Amino acid sequence: MQVADVSTVLGDFSDTTFDYFGKQTQFSSDGDQHVVTTENADGEEKEFRVAYTFGVAPLQQYLVEFPGGRLQALPYSWDTRDEADGGRRWYHLYPDEYIGPGDELHWTGRLQNWNYLCAECHSTNLQMRYDAATASYDTTYSELSVGCEACHGPGSHHRDQAVTGSYDGNLGLQVDLDDRNGAVWIMSPDTGIAGRSEPAPDVLRQPEACGRCHSRRGVIAPHYEYGKPLTDTHLPALLDEHLYFADGQIKDEVYVYGSFVQSRMHRAGVTCSDCHNPHNGELHAGDDPSDACARCHLPSTFATVEHSRHEPSDAACVDCHMPSRTYMGVDDRRDHSFRIPRPDLSTALGSPNACNECHSDESPAWAAAQVAEWLGPGAQQRSHYGTAIAAGREGRANAALCEAANNDAYPAIARATAITLLSPPFGELEFATLRSGLSNPDPLLRIAALRALRLTATENRLRIQPMGLDDPVRSVRLEAASTYAELRDLLPVGQTRAFARAADEYRETYSMLANTPEGLANLGSFELSMGDANAALEHFSSAVKLEPRSALLRHLMGLVLVRTGDRDAALEQLRLAFELEPGNARYVYVYGVALNSLGRHDDALQVLQTAREQFPNDFDIGWAVATILRDAGDIANARIVATQLATQYPDDLNIAALLEALGR
Nearest Cα to 451, choosing from 434, 428, 436? Predict the structure, then answer.
């Protein structure tokens, strides 16, 4: 990030124009003043002065100052690549669809706001300083761009020691990012793979530090704490469906951390600076990525036709093990999970594979057959967590998800994802999995177990001794506060004070994020769990103003209005949620139950029976249909639905009791 002037602006501002779906944008300059004439939030053509540049290669963006201390990123970027590579041109970040005024992705909106979404990772010691009362920012930083202290912490002691010439063991730096601790990589002539001379630490410090910016995550602490695990100040995303393919390959822009912690490299103790020079961003081995691989993988073993079935000159290591995807139009980024290509998973899960990246004219089945011919059919029969995650995304697959969650050979981020996909009701298998997750040393599993526990009925959450309220990791404490808020009066005496502290942290965290509908929604949900419906309604009302077309916010707003007794207004919000996102089983279930509670039994049955066809494995929808039919006196059809539920959930005692009452 740099102040925009003639030395930093790389784009062509010589009165050039760009056409975007018939809308003309002009780029002009006068000395250091660079101006973009384009649509504002109201669709009017207006001049905007570029205040800062953002990035250098392979693209450069431009920031505009708005009232209220905001900086907004223009959607028109300059492709800084050579002209021979397709560069030296203006392009729009959303070229395939018109993003106009009023769209949530329009450049004037909150999703293109520098203060919240960009600044922490592009400046040093950023303080966002959002004032909810005035909806304005007073953002500050120590350095405009990324400096030494962004990674190493405040440097005053280092400076003082440099002046005196007397250094301590850490050179006066606040955090030591050396993951080697004197270890070296020793090549094994038998396997052709290097191993550490000393075991790796349980937690590698560099991925946790680099992950602050090189991950898809949310901020959860008012101040970054150097040397702490990432989960102590940020909440990393799991393998969510819109971010990753089911097998964990990158899908959306996720910035490395989530893929790297899936890798065998990470488990073996490989750290960021083993490959990358952290101070210039280059590979230690030079421009050829295969040379970086050769530092730990003998070329005589791996850069061979026998290994890859390709000439080394035709397929580099990264072509097979680090396929890339293009983000922001021109920025190719490689998947850092270093996975073995599995075209068989492509046929089963619909995920991509490196083989068909090159052999695009062939099918995944063809690629899978080739691999089976080379390596034997057993090479593609190894279990993979992607199978369970894909099944969990489709519907209830608790047995497979529990098996994946309890598999120590799988990476923690995948096991945690499996836990979050568990569907209630939970039996002994699920509760055993949650107990194991809550005591796991990796915070991602503890977080996931607490989230899954929130899906159960309130009274069932105490089937497991409350855990996490005094966890050493902040993100776990926040999840625990949310999970046990409704049960705070039933907690053991020793946990009461821990809950109070965690609740204070929860409010501090999400009050800090009151510039986002997500932060306000979390506050609203928490206050609702704490029994303060009026405070919850205030938070949700503010959130809906920021994001009026959010189905989740409408749904939550409806639940709050039920608590306040405004049932008609609640029904309207629940209807909007259902209509905005008809593919969400929970929204249609709650809307149907609300209709029934207002005496509109026929309407409720119509909605829920249609939903039963759409979501045949959803327990709550099936249960609602069966009980509404029973209450309406339609015993025969109620028995049919209850019998179907008994087949799906043979161990559920409530269903057995319902069938007994209906007369088997």
Answer: 434
pLDDT category at 459 given cuts 50, 70, 90 is confident
Q: Which DSSP helix (H) or strand (E) runs through 19?
A: strand 16-20
Task: Identify the CA nearest to 621 among candidates 396, 379, 318.
Answer: 396
Q: Residues 638, 662: contact at Cβ < 8 Å?
A: yes
Question: What span, in angstroms and rounded, lies between the C-alpha atoms of 259 and 413?
Answer: 9
Which residues share a beta bridge with 71? 65
Q: How far apart are CA 613 and CA 182, in angstroms?
A: 61
Count of CA atoms in the C-beta half-sphere (13 A) of 169: 4
Token output for 149? 């202290």
Give the burial string for 519-529 (b: 16+ CB within 10 Å, else e). bbbbbbbbbbb
Q: Which part of the chain has CATH 1.25.40.10?
A: 582-664
Identify the three-state secondary structure at position 79: strand
Q: Rounded distance, CA 146 to CA 143, Å?
A: 7
Average pLDDT over the chain reads 95
Which residue type does 240 have?
Answer: D
> pLDDT at position 664, please?
66
The separation between the first and the last C-alpha atoms of the chain, rounded to the nearest angstrom, is: 71
On the question of pLDDT at 379 being above 90, the answer is no
Say how far apart CA 74 and CA 11 lie, in whole Å: 13
For the domain made up of 582-664, the CATH class stated in words is mainly alpha
Closest CA to 229 of 409, 476, 449: 476
Distance CA 248, CA 337 (A): 8
Q: What would the mean pLDDT of 385-410 be, rounded to a whole number?
A: 97
Q: How much is the pLDDT for 641?
A: 95
Comparing C-alpha atoms, which of 429, 382, 369, 375 is closest to residue 405?
429
- In the block, residue with structure tokens 């690549």: 81
Distances (CA, A) of 535 to 135, 458, 473: 19, 21, 28
In whole angstroms, how large is the CA radius of gyration of the chain?
27
Residue labelled with tokens 């006068």? 30
H-only helix segments in 513-600: 517-529, 533-546, 551-564, 567-580, 585-597
CA distances from 134 to 145, 224, 241, 321, 353 (A): 27, 25, 36, 50, 49
Residue 628 vs residue 168, higher pLDDT: 628
Angle 291-292-294 from CA coordinates, rounded to 5° = 60
Q: Which amino acid is at 113?
A: N
Q: What are phi and psi of 154, to 5 degrees?
A: -50, 135
Alpha-helical (H) ranges within 581-600 are 585-597
Residue-wise DSSP of 274-337 = HHB-TTT--BTT-S-HHHHHHTTB-HHHHSSHHHHSS-TTTS-HHHHHS-EEEETTTEEEE-TT
